[in-house]
Amino acid sequence: MKLAPTTDRRAVIDSAKTIVVKVGTNVLSKDDDTLDLDRIESLCDQVLRILDSGRKVVMVSSGAIGAGMGLLKLKHRPKDLPHLQAAAAVGQAHLIRLYNDCLQRRGYSAAQLLLTANDFKSRTRYLNVRNTLNTLFEYKVVPIINENDTVSIAEIKFGDNDQLAAMVTGLMDSPLLVILSVVAGLYDGDPAKSGSKLIPLVASWDAALRTLAVESKSARGTGGMQSKLDAVRIATAVGEDVIIADGTQPRALDEILSGQEIGTLFLGKHKAVPAWKRWIGFTVKPKGRFRLDAGARRAVEHQGKSLLAAGIKSVVGEFARGEVVALEDEHGEEFARGLTNFDSRETRLVAGKKTAEIAKVLGDVPYAEVIHRDNLVVTV
Known about the structure:
This protein has helices spanning about 5-15, 25-30, 35-50, 65-70, 80-105, 120, 125-135, 160-170, 225-235, 250-255, 275-280, 295-300, 345-350, 355-360, and strands at about 20-25, 55-60, 110-115, 140-145, 175-180, 200, 240-245, 265, 290, 310-315, 325-330, 335-340, 375-380.
């Protein structure tokens, strides 16, 4: 884990053209599970001040299920999917109305976008989401995004809004992702214990960061610090910066945008990943997995080579040509993803064979590479 000088924070803020604000359920809720109207009002005021600075703002807001729980007078979060979806259906309308009322008093409106993972799985739908957001920026509108909990099932869920926010950030122009939670940021130990200190700035992603995340999540929310670090990994891997801060503080966004050192800032890679490769490497869930030998990993990860059939040791899953697959090393560690030129049946037939032998197996050589470098993304 590498720490960076605090001067990086001001540079990050100044370079951001779009601020993606993810707000957790606990930030928006009171102890009795009703929505905190004063906090929503304060957040809207701060968002409008960001807009006044000439930046664009997208909000990824949790809270629909929590709002529904309050309206339905539920004392505990439902555990079964139908009741969770019912709470979301009731709560989402209430949540977006509150945002809209706050914004309209200042001449803006709220635009609601409810998404599922399928909206990012399809390249066409992925681009449609981006085009919709860019068009909304032409008007005095604040896009407010949430997962469509009323229809989401395991196969099309993001898992939580931290992941959704990271994916939305990848759609934006020069973004900064701000994750507002009830924790002040990443600590070097359990934040509930004395002696633990807030880490103000992390220069580069390190898997060791996960050991600092306390395994806990709130009664209302679906994610914890592990989930937030997963979102950090996705965003920083494609060159975006992320701040995790305490959204219960009255002026958290104001202080962040003024360059004050609150929360934890995670710096992205210096070289941004093109939008096409962001979609391949960090948005779509892989349909299959290739286990590679050490030489193939070295060629792909460090030498910028395409993946050839000779380096594939085994194939897992069923997939068609053109679908995303994950690349693993001999120990099962994923290190890259790409669009395969062969379907699962063909890949199993040619795995481990030299390119010259492919024609003998398939009758022809449709592609020399199983995954071409242009369609391949290193994810570590």
